[in-house]
Write a structure and sequence with these properties.
This protein has 13 helices and 19 strands. The chain is of the alpha/beta class. The longest helix is centred in the C-terminal third of the chain and has 24 residues.
């Protein structure tokens, strides 16, 4: 879409003045598909030309309401100009092919394509497309297909270019970041160890969703990476259900115990880490006892971020052929889960803390800027010119269910930063060589260098004593 500027087209946010609507689509839930249908109807009523992109058209190209419309496949976005041009000529064009090297599926369109960022401070990099799972309720696999990963060098190069263009925050995304590289013989930690080397001081990396099976092999590495001062200590790990019987029927390929192991390990090794998760209420084979296990998990772990979804049968999936639970019962389960979650206030203990945040967004009330601390908690600060895109030191003066509110303080006012890892630049000593090297590199970590020097001298003295003793 972005490259259309060089061919004489202009991108506009004003739908009414546009000649053509390029509609991206999501097939995860029925309401998303309904929204696409309504947008198409609106476009036609206004006499607009339409091009469809995204998973709905790719996963179900014969869907009635997109009949006769031009389509850009999920791996063909680099050819959007061709499709737009042909659509203006009155032709219907559909490009669904996959990018391949011989017979091997690639990640998709080149990562080096020009881009208009919705937020100029945030770069979103898809590190792979498709996945390795066969979840019985998911339609995305129909559209995205098998796993296709981008080479490490391409991702690192894209990141370096983005930072050079003024980006302050990179989001690594995919259908499943944990599965990255399994098709090309590399791993997610290998990518991340290289990527953190090019993150400038004052910039941050946020990792996207990973399913439990593909992170279990890398827990030690992931803990080290998530402890890095320029990586948010945040990870989205969907559980979907706490009942092993339901997980098996979903074909999720892990047990609740394995999910717990991921969360427990990361919480122990990365103090303060934010773990976000998802649950599905009303999967066809879920009994009341099964659902009670999920409620107990929510109660026990008190996830700061929890996405609660009702089960929606997606056409063409195995779960759609299963006998559904009555809608009123599904709604009741969703309500119960929401009530437990809404009673939990995960940020109350952070009031009074001094934290370092990176400001990158405007709040929905348009009265505040939004920054994020090391744990990707949302911190609201006054909407003052000069704050956007900056790293600020704030004192937390108020907390809510989904936010903290900060008051900017001068560096000289900071007497003590609480030892809760709330400041991404706070001193942290580790005997792990990787963390040690990274800490020494940080310009504020002179104390770390001194500690390493003292330890080195001590080891040398002990070695001399040992030799003399012999």
């Amino acid at each position: 879409v972005v490259s259309t500027q060089s061919t004489g087209y202009k991108i506009t946010d004003d739908a009414m003045s546009a000649d053509l609507w390029l509609l991206n689509s999501c097939t995860v839930k029925t309401p998303s598909e309904d929204g696409l249908r309504n947008s198409i109807t609106s476009a036609h009523s206004l006499g607009k030309k339409v091009v469809i992109a995204g998973c709905v058209s790719q996963g179900a190209p014969d869907t009635k309401f997109i009949e006769g419309l031009s389509v850009v496949g999920v791996q063909q976005i680099d050819r959007v100009v061709e499709v737009v041009e042909e659509t203006f000529k009155g032709h219907s064009v559909r490009l669904f092919g996959q990018k391949k090297e011989g017979v091997k599926k690639l990640g998709g369109a080149s990562l080096h394509l020009p881009k208009i960022r919705k937020n100029p401070l945030i770069e979103i990099i898809a590190i792979n497309t498709g996945c390795l799972n066969q979840c019985t309720y998911c339609k995305t696999k129909h559209a995205r297909g098998e796993l296709g990963s981008y080479p490490i060098a391409d991702i690192v190069e894209r990141g370096a270019q983005s930072f050079a263009e003024g980006v302050r925050e990179v989001w690594m995304t995919s259908e499943d970041t944990g599965a990255y590289g399994r098709d090309i013989g590399v791993t997610l930690p290998e990518l991340l160890y290289e990527f953190v080397e090019i993150i400038p001081e004052g910039c941050m990396l946020r990792l996207g969703m990973t399913n439990p099976p593909y992170i279990l092999d890398y827990l030690e590495d992931m803990a080290k990476i998530l402890s890095h001062p320029r990586v948010y200590s945040f990870l989205h790990v969907p559980v979907q259900a706490a009942s092993d019987a339901v997980l098996e029927d979903m074909k999720r390929e892990y047990t609740c115990a394995e999910f717990r192991r991921v969360v427990d390990f990361l919480r122990e090794k990365v103090p303060g880490i934010t773990i976000a998760t998802d649950i599905i209420c009303g999967f066809p084979t879920e009994t009341e006892e099964d659902f009670e296990e999920t409620l107990q998990l929510i109660q026990e772990y008190k996830f700061p971020s929890l996405f609660i979804n009702q089960f929606f049968p997606r056409p063409g999936t195995p779960a759609a052929r299963m006998k559904k639970i009555p809608a009123d019962r599904v709604k009741l389960r969703t309500k119960k889960a929401s009530e437990i979650f809404q009673k939990q206030f995960p940020y109350t203990h952070k009031q009074g803390e001094v934290q370092r945040i990176l400001v990158t967004e405007i709040a929905t009330d348009n009265k505040h800027y939004v920054g994020h601390n090391k744990f990707y908690d949302q911190v609201l600060v006054p909407k003052i010119e000069g704050y956007m895109g900056q790293s600020l030191t704030v004192r937390i003066v108020d907390t809510g269910k989904h936010y903290l509110r900060g008051e900017v303080v001068e560096e000289g006012e900071v007497q003590n930063i609480p030892s809760s890892y709330s400041n991404p630049n706070q001193l942290a000593f580790s005997l792990n060589p990787y963390n040690m090297v990274q800490n020494i590199k940080s310009k504020n970590n002179a104390w770390n260098f001194l500690i390493v020097l003292v330890v080195g001298v001590m080891f040398q003295m002990l070695y001399i004593l040992y030799r003399n003793h012999r």
